Amino acid sequence: MKIKKVHIDGFGKWHDQDFDFTANPQIIYGPNEAGKTTLMAFLVSILFGFADGRGKNRFAQYIPKTTSSYGGSLLVEINGHDYVIKRQRGRNGGKVSVTDSQGRQGGEQELKQLLGPMDRSLYQALFSFGQRDLTAVDELNRDEWQQHLQQLGAVGSAQWDQLIDQYQKQADHLYKPRGRKWPLNQDLHQYANLTDKINQARGKFHRYQDLQADLKTNKEKLRQTQAELQKQQPLLQKLEHLQQLWPVYHEWQHSHQTRLIADYLTDQQVTMAQELQVREKELRRQQQVYQQRLARIDHQSPQTTKHSPQSMPELQRLKEQVVELQAEEALQHRQQTQVNQWQQELTAIKTRYHHPLPAPLTSQEKTELARLLNVQPLSRANASQPNGDPSRAAMIGIVGGFVLFIIGLLANATFITAIGAIAAFATVMYLYYQRQGSHSAPVTTDSQAIMAFGQKHGLQDFPPDQWLLMQGDLQRNAELTAQLQTANQDQQRYDHQLTVFNQQLPPALQNLTLAAVRTKLDDLLEQGQQARQDIQVNTREKATIANNLAQLNQDYNKIHQQKLAIYQQAGVHDDNQFTQYLANRSAAQSQALASDAYGQQLTAEDRQALAAYANRDELMTVLSKTRHQLAQLTLTISRTHEEIQKDKVEIDSLVEDGTLSNLEQERANLAAKIWHEVQEWLRYQLAIQWVNKALAGASADRYPAIIRQAEQYFALLTDHRYSQIDLTADGIKVVRRDQEVFLVEELSQGTAEQLYIALRLGFVTVMSDQANFPIIIDDGFVNFDNVRRQRMLALLEKIAEKNQVIYFTADDRIKDLDVKILDLQALKRE
């Protein structure tokens, strides 16, 4: 498996963050509090589930405080195929989904298929280690080293031993040979009673007798097998008892007197030093509480002072502007209604004519036009007939219609507007037809002058007899055009003011409505006022905390000096040395009684029985063989039960009596229940045998390969100064290039850590063909100098050929090496 990309929706301090793990090895740098541990916990949580939040895991959930999102996803490559593993908030470790490159989705079952037998504890034990693991290397004794290597050779052997004990307890809760209250014991007793009742009710016939004979034979076989099982059980119990006593026996054999250390301190001085330690820790805790309160106040201060006092007048000025703009906005809405009415009237005027309308004539130009149109040199007297002046009446009709039309528009009365338009139009048509009749006889006019007048004033596209009649429409057209232009200028001025105002607003308030902006500004003004109050409160609280811290520092220094005075009498300098001093003091006092104590735990019979075995391995071999024999006996019992059940089923088919049928049915149901309980008991017994065999096989097969691979890595890390690793009766030994042999305890801390890393990486290399997972290292090379660190990085590059390597470090010296790193501190600044 290789992790290619990481996306965090929300996890601890990370939210909506992407990481690209294209480099291999992937080196991730960040100082303390940069988020390294959070990122590392996120990778493990997506693969194996979020912490449940109970007990000590309540601080391991990393629930974010700044976002409601919780979880994220990993893009991983497994066997050449890409999968997206996504996990979000939910029960039992979170809701998980797995999506392949074809878009097919799955859930928890698909993820288990991808991970195989790997779980969180096994992954962290094998593929993840850090400086804490390396620091503990120097404290391991020979047995602990051997047990640790055994666990590397046989994956999770310590957990498997616990599993064996768990299976044995569960099996004992089902059946015990001499028990009466256990479920299987009670069901077997009831089964025997039912069998007696059935035999009394069953008729005698040949097939029945054959079946009964076969049933009897199987029962006898079952009895003998169970007897043999009961015979072997005490032996197994005795061997298991000897196995438990072997560590005590081993210590009893190898117990010896150790040199007593001088007791420099009295019991009263030890008690006083311990009391001073407690008081010192309490003062340190109180100091941390006050410092955390100061940090929390400083962390909250940028939020409470988001709006400085200098920005408040600006916000007030913006609020006043938005009030003015709201008033202007209401005016523009009312004017837009008037503009729509003007536009409708202008459209109606233009619809009456088929050509563009010229400018209206002035009063002088109208007089001149009237003079030109009324020039009749041959018969002027004909113009004054007894019928009256039609032109004057027509003008009155036209003017009256336009007056009604204007009144209707201003009063927003559609009916009056229509009456005025109809009256004006009817008058024009009446005048037109009257003139057509009156001019049936040719009248002589000054046509050239009229045409020149029309060309001059843009009236050439209209009949001369309409020039005077259309002046009202032309005048209204000019007025409406001017009013629309003025309204448009007002709208442009308002839009400009609004644009300038929006540019003065913060980006978050731009493109909002004026009402929303006003509400936001009110909120910001209120927040600014609250911020000033918070600053005053925080200032007073910080002053109080500073005074308390000063007093605590004085008390702490006084107690610390008293404690150091007692330490000097004991020849120690710090708490760790004093703790070791107390341990040595106690060990020296109790070592004289250790041999007797061990001897009292062993009876003479136990010592004699344990003396029959040369070592623990020989005892474990005999124990394993006994367990195997018990498993075979259990299997024989299971098969015999199966044969008995077959015989009973066939007997059931021969029985026709109702009472007997009921008894047989009851016995069959009971037999099925017994069979289920036996299978469950056998499953536990077989699982115990399988685990023991698997441990032995795994240790014998993989351990030598791990040691050989670790020797190569150890030689590379030490520049071939050491060439061989041996596990002897005296402990773990390494052979130097000049063939000089050293115990692990004789190595420097850095070399011991290199040995530990070589063993861990040797295991990963040997197991990469069966369990290929990313290797996560958390600040594992703190004690390495630049040369050793360069060799370690070269080894990681070699390991990266088969496994992905992810290395987290807070050591800024990594930047001095020629390697590509992912800087979390720089990422946060972006």
What is this structure's SSE topology?
Blueprint: E1 2-11, E2 14-20, E3 26-29, H1 36-48, E4 71-78, E5 81-88, E6 95-100, E7 105-106, H2 108-115, H3 120-126, E8 128-130, H4 131-135, H5 142-153, H6 157-172, H7 183-201, H8 206-254, H9 267-304, H10 311-351, H11 363-373, H12 390-410, H13 414-438, H14 447-457, H15 471-504, H16 514-570, H17 575-601, H18 604-611, H19 616-654, H20 658-717, E9 722-728, E10 731-736, E11 741-743, H21 749-767, E12 775-778, H22 786-799, E13 805-809, E14 821-823, H23 824-829
Parallel strand pairs: 3-13, 3-14, 8-12, 12-13
Antiparallel strand pairs: 1-2, 1-4, 4-5, 5-6, 6-7, 9-10, 10-11
What do you see in this structure?
With 830 residues, this protein is of the alpha/beta class. The chain has 23 helices and 14 strands. The protein has helices at residues 36-48, 108-115, 120-126, 131-135, 142-153, 157-172, 183-201, 206-254, 267-304, 311-351, 363-373, 390-410, 414-438, 447-457, 471-504, 514-570, 575-601, 604-611, 616-654, 658-717, 749-767, 786-799, 824-829; strands spanning 2-11, 14-20, 26-29, 71-78, 81-88, 95-100, 105-106, 128-130, 722-728, 731-736, 741-743, 775-778, 805-809, 821-823. The strands form three sheets. It has a six-stranded antiparallel β-sheet with strand order 2-1-4-5-6-7. The protein has a five-stranded parallel β-sheet with strand order 8-12-13-3-14, sandwiched between helices. Strands 9-10-11 form a three-stranded antiparallel β-sheet. The longest helix is centred in the last third of the chain and has 60 residues, at 658-717. The chain starts with a strand and ends with a helix. The model is unreliable at 256-262, 375-388 and 438-444 (pLDDT under 50).
